[in-house]
Structure formats: structure tokens, C-alpha cells
């Protein structure tokens, strides 16, 4: 180990899948900043040249060609900084049997590749599907020399198997035998509630057990339904965190590494987000901003029912995009309460959001009359209820087509779980902001937004009114569902189970066990089990939702539609 300090730069960046030109520009800017700070080592996240995760774009020869061209351009660019070693993630072609690619880490210095490491552990669970495209690396531990320090290399999942429970290989064992001075791990680790603490527990534990200082560099940004929080950190060999960078922000920063461990030299450490509600809010804000920007939209439109779900969606959208880029439409029917319109008006006035009114009573009557004339039968009951939702969905989509604003769907996880929503109606849209929040969480986050602003953004009337779809006379959600305080605990156990944080899992398990002790409670529980299973077809056709919790609907929960339960 050298006696001179090693200056290391971390590039906690926000790459976009397939945007090789944009990602290269970000990488070059990071190079310049690192060079200006006289860094000797620059660390980028996993697959940072192509963005994480490309999915079946990895099967396209054009995509791989562009990845190689981007790597070549960055390698040539590195000659401008001859004393700086950069570690970058990119797909690399594999030779021999198996999948055609490696998820690779490339170390570049002065126009040359000085090392190549292939990810050994490929996650294929929850939202991950890397074994679909990549072959596991077989080369064992790899290190490079930077400034007289031996630096071991690792990619994301490689650092999560120190107990050897999930894979037969534990990359730490080979690294420990190599005895590097420092281990660098490049990552694309998605964010969810509890993930930051879980990451630190795993990585700090491994550092302590093996006596290895670890620099953990993570990407930031929203990619479809997934949000990456960054929150990169440096941990010393004793397992203590020496430096952590902020969540949900891009960061280029430097620190020193010596025989005594990591030392901060540039910016002072910034406080982390330890408030659960603020974490959820910042997570969704970033997810929405990047989704809208990357899909080419500037504005969004939301159906405003005067209820809590649409109110929270509008409030988040206004903060993320600016109120001038949010349109709300109230669409009262014969069954809408007076508050449906007035509460929407109060909300939009508080936010500075434009609100339009498009009553649907006449449309419903006209449709019902034509239905009677065509089919010689009256439109009533559930068909009439769903018609109202579908007319509203059609109006929103018409406005979207006309104005170019993307529709935000407003369903929460409780309703989506049991199918308490209408296909081609309130499920219409390009993205769901609160689809991974249970109804009780929707209320908590809404109250927090008011508290955070120190004023009433979401009107008290919306926070206190009984939830209702308002599709029938005097309708309440509790006509069809148990109270959300009951439903949500059942859903947490059935959908997420042991993927919940330990305390949340124990609370849900204790509550549900007690609730099922009565015959009536058991009947409700079994009914919920059936509703979840029967409504998979609705979830399959719904828009993507921003993943917030450890297990969300979408890629993280793959269930058949046609199955016996």
C-alpha cells in the first residue's frame, strides 16, 4: 500500500437506457470534474454507458454496437486525463456457450483498457432478470493498481451473497484472499422503502467480516417504474460508514483513501432523508420527473374527483413539474357530491393548477338511452357505474390527445390489489404515482404534504370525507371492501409477506392472525385472497406504477391470469 493518499471521485449519475450520446456527455463531464479535483480514480455506476436496465434491447445488435462505440469514444477521451483511472459499466460480448453477453466493469487509463471484470452473480428475482441476457463471470477476483493501491473490483449483486444463501459463489472469499487495499463496487440498486438501511447493513457487515474498505457507488434517477436513489457511501474496514452521499441527487464528489481509511476532502456530508414520508415523496417526485422527461412529455392531466387519491396525485405532480404543467379536470355525474367539484376547486386554487369542468350527466343519459334502444335492456348496476368511469377515462384521453399532456392514473395499491377500479376508465393513463401506496399510506402522505408546507394544500374536507367512488347513490368504499385499516394489513401480508421490513411484517402478521380468529374475519380474509387472484387481468392491462415498496405490481410480481386458486 502506498503512503500517499489516493484521491477517488464518485460519479453518482443519472444515465438513460439507450441514450449513448447523453450518457457519454454525462461521463465526459464527470471526467472533467474529477480531473479538476485531481482525482486518481473515477467510479461510475453499473451499466452506466447504456443505462440500467436495457432488457431485450440487449438482444439487438445495433444496441451492442453502440455500446462498444460509446466505450471506444470514452476510452479515447481518457487520454486527456492520463493520470486518471476510470471504472465504467457496460455490456461486453461473451465467447463460448451460454448467454452472449457479460455485465462488465471496464477500467480505463490513458486510452487503454487496463482491466475487465464480469459480474458473477446475476439477480433473477423480483424486478431483476439479468440471467435472461447475461452469462455469469467466471474469472474470480480482479484488481487494478491505482497510485500504489491495490483496488479490488465488484458489481452490485456480487456484494450481496456473503452468507452464501442465494448463490453457490461468494465473491468476497476470492477478494479476501487477494487482500486488496480497497474494494470498489459499482451498482444500479433500485430504491424502495427500507432499501438504504438494508444496503448498508449488508455491505458494512461484509466490510467488517473481511476487513475490506468498500466504496459503494450507485446510480440515481427514474427508469420506467423503477427509481434509483443513489445514496452512495464509503465504508471503512471496521464496518463504519465514513461518508454517504445524498439520495435522489446527482453527485460528482471526491474523497481520500489512505492506510487509515476514507477521509472527506471536498464537501461536508449532507444530511440524509430519515423521514419515511419525505423519502416516499422525493422518490415519487424523481420517478415522475424522469418518466415525463424521457418519454417526451411536458405536461400532465389528472381527473380530479374531489377524493384523496386524485388530490395527492395532483399535489405531487404540481411539485414535480410545476403547477403550470398540470391540468385537472373535474367530471361530475348525477351521483357526484357537491364536494366533488368544490373540493377540487379548493385543491387546485391552493396549488395554482388549472381546473376544467366537464360534466358527464348528459353523456351518461344519452349513452343509457341508446343502450336501451339498441339492446332492449336498461343499463343499470355495475354496468352503469363502470360507464361513468369509462366516460371519464375517455374524456381524459381525448384531452391528452388534443393537448399532448400525459394522463396520470390515480389508483392506490389497495384498490389495484382487489380490482376496485375500472378497466379503460380510472385505470387509463401513462403512469401511476401512488399505485404502490396502500390507502392508509395515501392518507399519511397527504397529511404530511400539508404539514411540510405549513398550510392546507390538500383540503381538510378531502382528508376527512369517507372514501367513495361516487358511482351510485350514497356509495362508500366500505360497501364493497372492509375498512382500509383492515384491508391494508391483509394485503401487506398476502402481497409482500416477508419482503416487508421485519417490524412491519410482525405487525401485519399479528393483526391478521387476530382478525382471522373469528369466522367473520376469516370469511373476509378468504374473500380478499380471491379478489387479488381474480383481478390479475386488470393489473396486467394497467399503466406502469412507480415502485416504492419492496414488492410492487408489475415486473416484481409475475402471476398468471388464468389459474386456479
Automatic annotation (TrEMBL):
Superkingdom to which the source organism belongs: Bacteria
Binding positions for ATP per the UniProt entry: 303-310, 410
EC number: 6.3.5.1
Domain CN hydrolase: 6-270
Keywords assigned by UniProt, alphabetized: ATP-binding, Ligase, NAD, Nucleotide-binding
PROSITE patterns, alphabetized: CN_HYDROLASE (PS50263)
Keyword NAD: yes
Residues given in the record as L-glutamine binding sites: 125, 189, 195
GO MF assignments: NAD+ synthase (glutamine-hydrolyzing) activity
Active site: 46 (proton acceptor), 119 (for glutaminase activity), 156 (nucleophile)
Ribonucleoprotein found in the keyword field: no
Family statement drawn from the similarity comment of this UniProt entry: Belongs to the NAD synthetase family. In the C-terminal section; belongs to the NAD synthetase family.
Stated role: Catalyzes the ATP-dependent amidation of deamido-NAD to form NAD. Uses L-glutamine as a nitrogen source.
Protein name (database record): Glutamine-dependent NAD(+) synthetase
Organism annotation: Methylomonas defluvii
Gene that produces this protein: nadE
Amino acid at each position: 500500500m502506498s503512503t500517499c493518499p489516493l484521491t477517488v471521485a464518485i460519479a453518482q449519475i443519472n444515465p438513460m437506457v439507450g441514450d449513448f450520446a447523453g450518457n457519454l456527455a454525462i461521463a465526459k463531464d464527470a471526467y472533467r470534474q474529477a480531473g479538476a479535483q485531481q482525482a486518481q480514480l473515477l467510479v461510475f455506476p453499473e451499466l452506466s454507458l447504456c443505462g440500467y436496465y436495457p432488457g431485450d434491447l440487449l438482444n439487438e445488435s445495433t444496441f451492442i454496437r453502440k455500446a462498444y462505440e460509446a466505450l471506444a469514444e470514452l476510452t479515447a477521451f481518457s487520454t486527456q486525463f492520463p493520470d486518471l483511472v476510470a471504472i465504467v459499466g457496460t455490456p461486453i460480448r461473451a465467447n463460448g456457450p451460454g448467454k452472449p453477453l457479460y455485465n462488465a466493469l471496464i477500467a480505463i487509463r490513458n486510452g487503454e483498457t487496463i482491466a475487465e471484470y464480469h459480474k458473477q452473480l446475476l439477480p433473477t428475482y423480483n424486478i431483476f432478470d439479468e440471467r435472461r441476457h447475461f452469462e455469469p463471470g467466471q474469472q474470480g477476483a480482479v484488481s487494478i493498481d491505482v497510485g500504489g493501491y491495490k483496488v479490488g473490483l465488484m458489481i452490485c449483486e456480487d456484494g450481496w451473497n456473503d452468507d452464501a444463501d442465494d448463490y453457490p459463489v461468494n465473491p468476497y472469499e476470492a477478494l479476501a484472499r487477494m487482500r486488496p487495499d480497497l474494494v470498489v463496487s459499482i451498482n444500479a440498486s433500485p430504491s424502495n422503502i427500507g432499501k438504504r438501511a438494508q444496503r448498508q447493513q449488508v455491505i458494512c457487515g461484509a466490510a467488517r467480516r473481511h476487513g475490506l474498505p468498500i466504496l459503494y457507488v450507485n446510480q440515481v434517477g427514474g427508469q420506467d417504474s423503477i427509481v434509483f436513489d443513489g445514496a452512495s457511501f464509503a465504508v471503512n474496514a471496521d464496518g463504519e460508514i465514513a461518508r454517504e452521499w445524498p439520495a435522489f441527487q446527482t453527485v460528482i464528489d471526491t474523497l481520500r483513501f489512505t492506510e487509515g481509511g476514507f477521509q472527506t476532502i471536498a464537501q461536508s456530508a449532507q444530511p440524509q432523508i430519515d423521514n419515511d414520508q419525505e423519502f416516499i415523496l422525493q422518490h415519487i417526485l424523481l420517478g415522475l420527473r424522469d418518466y415525463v422527461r424521457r418519454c417526451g412529455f411536458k405536461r400532465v392531466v389528472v381527473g380530479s374527483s374531489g377524493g384523496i387519491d386524485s388530490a395527492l396525485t395532483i399535489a405531487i405532480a404540481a411539485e414535480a413539474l410545476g403547477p403550470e404543467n398540470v391540468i385537472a379536470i373535474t367530471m361530475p355525474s348525477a351521483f357526484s357530491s357537491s364536494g366533488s367539484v368544490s373540493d377540487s376547486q379548493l385543491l387546485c386554487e391552493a396549488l395554482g393548477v388549472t381546473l376544467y369542468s366537464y360534466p358527464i350527466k348528459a353523456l351518461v343519459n344519452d349513452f343509457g338511452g341508446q343502450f336501451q334502444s339498441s339492446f332492449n335492456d336498461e343499463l343499470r348496476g355495475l354496468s352503469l357505474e363502470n360507464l361513468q368511469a369509462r366516460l371519464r377515462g375517455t374524456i381524459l384521453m381525448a384531452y391528452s390527445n388534443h393537448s399532448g399532456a400525459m394522463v396520470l392514473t390515480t389508483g392506490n395499491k389497495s384498490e389495484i390489489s382487489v380490482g376496485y377500479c375500472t378497466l379503460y376508465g380510472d385505470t387509463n393513463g401513462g403512469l401511476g404515482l401512488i399505485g404502490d401506496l396502500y390507502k392508509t399510506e395515501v392518507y399519511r402522505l397527504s397529511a404530511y404534504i400539508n404539514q411540510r408546507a405549513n398550510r392546507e394544500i390538500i383540503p381538510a374536507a378531502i382528508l376527512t370525507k369517507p372514501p367513495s367512488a361516487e358511482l351510485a347513490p350514497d356509495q362508500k368504499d366500505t360497501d364493497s371492501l372492509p375498512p382500509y385499516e383492515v384491508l391494508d394489513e391483509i394485503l401487506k401480508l398476502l402481497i409482500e409477506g416477508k419482503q416487508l421490513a421485519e417490524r412491519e411484517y410482525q405487525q401485519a402478521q399479528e393483526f391478521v392472525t387476530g382478525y382471522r380468529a373469528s369466522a367473520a374475519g376469516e370469511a373476509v380474509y378468504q374473500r380478499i385472497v380471491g379478489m387479488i387472484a381474480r383481478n390479475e387481468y386488470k393489473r396486467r392491462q394497467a399503466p406502469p406504477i412507480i415502485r416504492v415498496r419492496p414488492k410492487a405490481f408489475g415486473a416484481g410480481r409475475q402471476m398468471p391470469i388464468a389459474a386456479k386458486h
